C-alpha cells in the first residue's frame, strides 16, 4: 500500500463535482455525478493511501436519518433530510483527532476547519491534484513583488522578515498539499 495514509481527507461532494468536468455527469443525474466522483476519489485513495470521506447533501430529498456507506474504499455520507452537508462536515471536523484536510470552496467550512487546526484546500486545487496537474514545490516560495512595487522601491532596501512570510493558514495548507 502506498505511504502517506496519515491524512484523512473530507470532501464536500457536490462542491467538488460542480467545479470540475464531473458536472457533466451531474447534468445527466445526481447519481451519475456522485458515482463519477467516488470513482475518482477511490483511484486517488488507491494510489496515495489516504482515508477519504465524501459528504453529500441530503437535506432536501434525503432520508430522515443520516446514511453512511463504503464504496470502493471511500466512506460516503449523505446528510439527513433537513441537514446540510456543511453541518455533517463540521461534526466530522469537531470529532477528529487525526490530521484532517477538508476539500471545499465554501468559505464558512474552510474557516471553521482552520480555526480548529485542520487544513482546508479549495475544490479547484484538489481537482487539479486529483488529475496530477498540480505539483507542490518542496520549498515555500514567496510571491515576487509586482512591477509597480519594484518601481516604487528603487533605491530603497527590500523588506525582510515576517511581513513577507505566507500566512499561517497558507503555510498549513501547503504542508497538507505536500502530504497529499
What would you say about this model in short?
The protein is α/β, with parallel strands linked by helices. Helix content is about 40%, strand content about 15%. It starts with 6 loop residues before the first strand and ends with a helix.
Describe, in plain words, how this protein is organized in 3D.
With 180 residues, the protein is an alpha/beta fold. It has one domain (7-135): Rossmann fold (3-Layer(aba) Sandwich). Helix content is 42%, strand content 17%. The protein is built from eight helices and six strands, in the order E-H-H-H-E-E-E-H-E-H-E-H-H-H. It has helices at 13-17, 23-28, 30-48, 85-95, 107-115, 123-130, 147-152, 168-179; strands spanning 7-12, 51-56, 67-71, 74-78, 99-103, 119-121. A six-stranded mixed beta sheet has the order 3-4-2-1-5-6, with helices on both faces. The radius of gyration is 19 Å and the shape is globular. The relative contact order is 0.15. Mean pLDDT is 79; it is low at 134-154.
Largest sheet: 6 strands, mixed
Strand line-up in the sheet with most strands: 3-4-2-1-5-6
Helix content, binned percent? 40-55%
Supply Rg: 19 Å
Task: Specify the structural class.
Answer: alpha/beta
Task: Give the SSE map.
Blueprint: E1 7-12, H1 13-17, H2 23-28, H3 30-48, E2 51-56, E3 67-71, E4 74-78, H4 85-95, E5 99-103, H5 107-115, E6 119-121, H6 123-130, H7 147-152, H8 168-179
Parallel strand pairs: 1-2, 1-5, 2-4, 5-6
Antiparallel strand pairs: 3-4
